[in-house]
Amino acid sequence: MPVKVHIHATHRQYTNGLEVVEAQGGTVGECLNDLIKQYPGMEKALFAKKGKLANIVEVYVNHASAHPNELVKPIKDGDDIHLIVMLAGG
Amino acid sequence: MLTPSERERYDRQIMIGEIGEKGQEKLKRSRVVIAGTGGLGSPIAIYLTAAGIGVIRVIDHDQVALSNLNRQVLYWEEDLHRKKVDSARTKLRGLNSAVEIEGITETITEDNVSRLVEGFDVIVDAMDNLPTRYILNRCAIEKNIPFFHGAVNGFEGRAMTIIPRETACLRCMYRGPVPQEKFPVIGVAPAVIGSIQATEVIKYLVGIGKLLTNRLLIYDGLNMNFSEFIINKNPNCDHCGSHVRKE
User: Fold this and answer.
1) Which of B25, B130, B152, B202 is the most buried (most CB within 10 A)?
2) CA of B233, closest CA in chain A: separation in Å?
């Protein structure tokens, strides 16, 4: 069973409007690489540079924060990954 | 002790079993700082004033601008160009003259934050930028004052409650500086999040309910749903980590 990656509203322009995308991988990083293979526009949205997530991106696995060292966190089939953008307005 | 007038004014909330007269007295004895009186600060200040908090200090360095009026419901057209805290004080006193409203027109900085929150029971985050939120977060932890976080963008918002030395703090999620940008927002988003923050403050001050601690609540107004995410206390957090307390 693949992993479900939940895409933030501001990033859905890169996933053809899809809110949830399926991906494969044994870690968060591998799943995100698979996501980017399917939707290349997500790379710029998620990464500041190769292997470094943008500071504004938060990663949650099964509704729990994956911070710190998000990319190496293990993932198993059927897990949910939420990619969320930090908010700063008031 | 509540006066007869206070018993009448707060009758509907005293009727709530978890609050009662004892809870109302606790609210009356409480002192709350609201950092920022914009989109979030407006509903927070209005509902805490209506609820009968004893002392509310509102801090904002800004003046009312036309572009504020889509969301900052404390201000009306007649308030344009006035200092926000002056206008807020007038409105809040008109709503509940028994609440002591202190208005401070200052920019919150590392240098003045300790003085600005000294002697208060809680700090409410109604800021519009992350750097000042982190200044408040650090100060709240150092002074052991509960901190009620909220933030918005567009139709979306988030809230989390921080009890220093016990729960994850805002900085536990820190991943590095984020560029400061003008943010889009529809007024109903801070109305929802500000009301959640005010609810958390009331619960904390009365000592009831389950607080939004170690949990980040995310509101998506476009899809109309709430999600909840677990935030773990980060032992290496540079604000609340174990190494900080040993110093």
Assistant:
1) B152
2) 10
* Identity of the residue in B152, B227, B230 whose CB atom sits nearest the CB atom of A89: B152
Q: What is the ipTM of this complex?
A: 0.95
pTM for the whole structure: 0.97
Are the Cβ atoms of B133 and A88 closer than 8 angstroms?
Answer: yes
CATH number for the segment(s) A3-85 = 3.10.20.30
Amino acid at B218: I
Specify the CATH number of the domain B4-246.
3.40.50.720
Name the interface residues of A facing B (CB cutoff 8 Å). 9, 53, 55-58, 60, 63-65, 67-68, 82, 84-90
Task: Give the C-alpha separation, B232 to B167, whole Å.
Answer: 8
Q: Count of CB atoms within 10 A of residue A69's CB?
A: 9
Determine the Cα–Cα distance for residues A74 and A63; give it in Å rounded to an integer. Answer: 14
* Domain residue ranges in chain B: 4-246
